[in-house]
Amino acid sequence: MSSSLLAMGIFTLVGAITPGPVNVLALRHGAARSRLACACYVLGASGSYAAVVWAMGQGAHWLMQALPHLSTAAEWLCAAYLLWLAWRLAHAPVETPVTEAQKHNDSARMLQLLLQGVAVQTLNPKAWLVALAGIGLFVLPQANRAMAQWQFCTMSLLACLIGVGCWALLGQWLSGWLHTPRRQRRFYRLLALLLVASVAAMLA
Question: Transmembrane ranges (predicted)?
């Protein structure tokens, strides 16, 4: 049991911490927002991923396989949403400097960031594919599938909190370097390019 939980933990953490659209946006919010605002985004993305894993375990993977057009439509919907976010990032306004006072004015945006985390993760094909693979590896082969699914959902939630949270903390660390409009503009455009690259990788 302990070895299977260890394997499950490694699988979920690797899936959560590797680069992707959710983590790119966490990096951006970490650089420009307060820790509490970043936490809202991380919680939204992590809770959404746990829900994706649960849905896959309840049979969504059979639906996706039975209706391949639904999967294709979901991929294109996600691609369109991420490209729109990339455009927003590339044209994001800059501040000189990004002060702590400005960061603490994020209270009105916390719900928006929470919902953005939910939306980006729900529309992220990487999340569905990793969940599908994990269900096949760690849930379906078990005699007690209900218990295995709860374990995998819990592990996925914890791994996502750690993985996305690490990217947000990296953004917080970079915020001290982003004290000029020029650096902020370059940073946002780099993140926009990373989002476009992740979309291209998804559709390849």
Answer: 36-55, 123-140, 152-174, 186-203
Distance of alpha carbon 200 from alpha carbon 14, whole angstroms: 21
Question: pTM of whole model > 0.85?
Answer: no
Written as six digits, the tokens of 203 are 């559709």
Question: What is the dihedral angle through the alpha carbons of 103, 119, 195, 81, rounded to the nearest 10 degrees?
Answer: -120
Per-residue pLDDT of the chain (204 residues; tens, 9 = 90+): 567 788 888 888 888 887 788 888 898 888 877 788 889 999 999 999 999 999 888 876 566 566 667 666 766 776 777 787 778 777 776 655 445 555 555 566 788 899 999 999 998 877 887 888 888 778 877 888 889 899 999 999 999 999 999 989 988 888 777 666 777 778 778 878 877 886 776 666
Amino acid at 80: A
Query: Which residues neighbour 57 within 8 Å (Cβ) at sequence distance 6 or greater?
Result: 135, 139, 145, 149, 152, 153
Domain boundaries of the chain, sorted by first residue: 2-203
Distances from the Cα of 130 to the Cα of 61, 73, 125, angstroms? 11, 18, 9
- The pairs formed by 128-135 with CB atoms below 8 angstroms and a separation of 24 or more are 128/52, 128/56, 128/64, 128/74, 130/15, 131/49, 131/52, 131/53, 131/55, 131/56, 131/156, 132/56, 132/61, 132/64, 134/8, 134/11, 134/12, 134/15, 134/53, 134/56, 135/53, 135/56, 135/57, 135/61
